[in-house]
Automatic annotation (TrEMBL):
SUPFAM superfamilies: CoA-dependent acyltransferases (SSF52777)
Signal peptide stretch: none
GO BP: lipid biosynthetic process
Highest taxon above the source species: Bacteria
Enzyme's top EC category: transferase
Organism: Nocardia aurantia
Protein name: SL659 acyltransferase papA1
rRNA-binding as UniProt keyword: no
Keyword set, alphabetical order: Acyltransferase, Transferase
Gene Ontology molecular function: any one: acyltransferase activity
Pfam families to which the protein is assigned, alphabetical: Condensation
Residues of the Condensation domain: 73-377
């Protein structure tokens, strides 16, 4: 299985810590990088403006994503790792860019020339406790307005090595985090073993993707079919975005930091039975996820209508599927439950709603919000936030057969948290549910109640003879 959680929960064993960071010359040259015409993606721009708005927070407001793995050797070739790190950064052009907010509030992208990218190893000595490593990773990885907002490292022992990549969310999504570990492993193996098979597909340019996205969405207006559909769904929800059905006890006078919990929903045999029941009703596993969530929320809030938001990848080609970047858009999943409480009936509706949502993949909701007039009657404004439910079938991801062997982990920092974010991950060894939510006593109780009810619905739906 893959471990999910907050960086505070990462427990690397003692060892000798070596990090890879931008050389002083590289960092200096990067600051001089010229402006590039490729805009940020809509997702990136919203993220950067929020980070800028909360720059005075006494903690890192932006997201920091940490990918970890354990390998059963203590004999790491540091020169080979240095070459692999730099090859990785040059392979994915998102890592050669940085942003600033220019005159008039315009968002400027700068592109660092390939010859100016140089990450070098730094020996930090022996570390005895996980807290020291966690603090080191977070303190040495800059924020999203610095070019080098990503670092690499290893913790070496006699018989094993912990590897990590820490990168600001600006440059990666969930798929990108999985892909990063696979890429780095192959690049390192290629440096130390001549017989390494060439499994690296040429990666697409993330800058080209951002340019194409903006060119498409710039043509949209309030009368565009996708925009009209979004507005229809929001109006059908009382003019508001989806909300979590229970009180979170959020305070408005302070930042609400993140808390986390992960539970196992299914082993793989049970997940297969759940999937079979979904397919017997013309749905897929993802339809079953939203059916279970809708039924759980009906029990909790007595609602006969479900409206949720889910992130999906926008990678459409083999080259984009080989590219690290923030290739994500949010889609709506909305459907009536009616009087029935039957999973078999609801899962069909949920699947249909999910597939309808996919039709809005190219209609960025961030762009929809930009188009709204100042006097809109909808309760949606820049900086909006809402709950999110993500489903990933990680069994299809490159290198998934090594997840257990390498004891992989995906972690995030305790950034600000205003909503409940849910990830359901189907892995080779089972299916997990991870929740990040505001760290308040009320939210802990509400999330416990929600997770327990949702797990019970999943368990009931997975029975062979419901």
């Amino acid at each position: 299985m893959v471990d999910f959680g907050l960086i505070d929960e990462w427990e690397p064993a003692p060892g000798r810590l070596t990090g890879w960071v931008a050389s002083p010359r590289s960092a200096e040259r990067a600051r001089l990088a010229p402006v590039h015409p490729a805009p940020p993606s809509h997702q990136q721009e919203q993220y950067l403006r929020l980070a800028d708005r909360h720059a005075t927070a006494e903690f890192r407001y932006s997201g920091l994503c940490l990918v970890t793995a354990e390998i059963p050797t203590g004999d790491l070739d540091h020169a080979a790792m240095t070459r692999a790190v730099n090859a990785f950064l040059l392979r994915h052009d998102t890592f050669r860019t940085w942003f600033r907010i220019g005159p008039g509030g315009a968002m400027e992208r700068h592109l660092v020339p390939e010859q100016d990218v140089e990450f070098v190893p730094v020996d930090y000595g022996w570390v005895d406790d996980p807290e020291t490593v966690r603090d080191h990773v977070q303190k040495t990885t800059p924020g999203p307005f610095d070019w080098d907002c990503f670092t690499f490292g290893v913790i070496e022992r006699d018989a094993s090595t912990t590897l990590y990549l820490a990168v600001d969310h600006l440059h990666t999504d969930g798929f990108g985090q999985y892909l990063s570990g696979f890429d780095l492993a192959l690049l390192y193996m290629r440096e130390v073993w001549d017989e390494t098979p060439d499994q690296l597909v040429p990666a697409a340019s993330y800058l080209d993707y951002c340019t194409t996205e903006r060119a498409y969405t710039q043509q949209m207006s309030l009368t565009s079919p996708g925009v009209r559909k979004w507005l229809e769904l929001i109006r059908g929800n009382g003019g508001s975005l989806p909300s979590f059905p229970l009180d979170l006890g959020r305070r408005t006078d302070v930042y609400n930091r993140s808390a986390h919990r992960t539970v196992t929903l299914f082993d793989e045999d049970t997940a297969a039975r759940f999937e079979q029941r979904c397919r017997a009703n013309g749905a897929e596993f993802v339809g079953g996820v939203f059916a279970a969530i809708a039924l759980a929320e009906r029990d909790i809030a007595d609602s006969d209508y479900y409206f949720g938001m889910t992130p999906v990848t926008t990678r459409g080609t083999a080259a984009e599927r080989a590219s690290v970047g923030w290739y994500v858009t949010l889609l709506p999943v909305a459907f009536p439950l009616g009087p029935t409480t039957s999973f078999d009936r609801v899962v069909t509706r949920a699947q249909y709603a999910y597939e309808n949502g996919l039709r809005l993949t190219t209609t960025s909701f961030q762009r929809v919000v930009e188009l709204l007039p100042a006097d809109t009657d909808l309760d949606v404004s820049p900086g909006w936030a809402c709950p999110m439910i993500s489903y990933v079938d990680a069994r299809d991801l490159p290198g998934n057969e090594f997840f257990d062997l390498a004891a992989c982990g995906l972690y995030t920092n305790r950034a600000a948290s205003e909503q409940v974010l849910i990830w359901i991950n189907r892995l080779p060894g089972g299916t997990t549910l991870s929740v990040v939510h505001p760290d308040t006593p009320v939210a802990h109780g509400s999330v416990d109640r929600y997770v327990n009810r949702l797990a019970a619905v999943f368990t009931a739906a997975a029975r062979e003879n419901p």
